[in-house]
Specification:
about 0% strand; about 240 residues
C-alpha cells in the first residue's frame, strides 16, 4: 500500500501496536473530525497573515511547517500536537503567499480556493462511489508521477542558484500551463490515495493518534493542491 503523499506511505501502518478496543482505535469519522479541526486552524493562520502580511509569516511558516512536518513523519505519536502546529504554520505561509498573488491577479485567491475545495469534493465522491479504483497499478502510477514532479522541483531549486529558471515550472507558455495541469491532476489523485489509506488504517485498528496523523497527511496534500492551483491560474491570466 503506497501513497504519493510522503506522510501516508506503504509502511505507515507497519510495526504499529494495534488497538485492542474500538474506543482506542482510529476511525474514519474521527479522522474527518480531526481534519475539520486542522482545516479550521489553517484558516485562522491564513487569516492572520492575510490581514497582517509579512515576509516573516511566509518564510517562518514555510520553514517552520517543513520542520514540523518532518518531525511528524518520524514521530507519528506526536501528531496530536504537531499536526495542529503544522496547520497553523502553513496557514501563516498560505495567507502571505495568497496576498502576493491577489495583489498581482485580482480574484485569483477566491478562484483557487473554490477550485481546491471543488477538486477535493469531486475526488472524494469519485472514491466513495467507486468511480476510481485504487489498484496496485494505480498507486504505482501516481507515486511515480509524484516522484518525478519532486525531482523536477529539486532540479529547479538547484538551477535557480545559477540563474536558470525552468520554463516548465515558471513559464506561462503552453508547455508551462500543461505542466501545471499535470501537477494539479497528480495532486488530486494523491487525495484518492490518502482517502484509501485512511480507510485501511481504520480497518487495521491503528492507534487513535493516527486520526491526527492521517488528517495531517490530507492537509499536506490540500496545501500542495492549493499552491499549484494558484500557480496554474496565474499562468493562465498571463496569457
Amino acid at each position: 500500500m503506497r501513497s504519493g503523499n510522503p506522510t501516508l506511505s506503504e509502511k505507515t501502518f507497519q510495526n504499529l501496536e494495534r488497538s485492542a478496543s474500538q474506543e482506542g482505535a482510529m476511525t474514519v469519522s474521527g479522522t474527518i473530525n480531526k481534519t475539520g479541526i486542522l482545516f479550521f486552524i489553517l484558516m485562522i493562520g491564513a487569516s492572520i497573515s492575510w490581514y497582517q502580511p509579512s515576509q516573516l509569516f511566509i518564510w517562518g511558516g514555510a520553514i517552520g511547517g517543513f520542520i514540523v512536518a518532518m518531525v511528524t513523519v518520524f514521530k507519528k505519536e506526536w501528531s496530536p500536537v504537531t499536526a495542529p502546529l503544522y496547520a497553523a504554520l502553513e496557514g501563516l505561509m498560505l495567507g502571505g503567499v495568497s496576498v502576493m498573488y491577489e495583489g498581482a491577479y485580482s480574484g485569483i485567491v477566491y478562484n483557487a480556493v473554490m477550485l481546491t475545495l471543488g477538486t477535493f469534493a469531486v475526488m472524494l465522491l469519485a472514491y466513495r462511489s467507486g468511480w476510481i479504483q485504487v489498484t496496485k497499478r494505480f498507486r504505482m502510477g501516481v507515486v511515480a508521477a509524484t516522484g518525478g514532479i519532486a525531482l523536477v522541483y529539486v532540479a529547479s531549486f538547484i538551477l535557480s542558484f545559477f540563474g536558470i529558471n525552468l520554463s516548465l515550472i515558471h513559464g506561462d507558455g503552453l508547455m508551462g500551463i500543461g505542466f501545471s495541469l499535470i501537477i494539479v491532476g497528480v495532486a488530486a489523485l494523491n487525495l484518492v490515495l490518502d482517502f484509501d489509506m485512511i480507510e485501511r488504517g481504520a480497518e487495521a485498528n491503528a492507534p487513535k493518534y493516527f486520526e491526527w496523523y492521517t488528517s495531517f497527511g490530507l492537509i499536506v496534500t490540500l496545501v500542495w493542491l492549493y499552491l499549484e492551483m494558484l500557480r496554474l491560474l496565474s499562468k493562465l491570466q498571463n496569457r
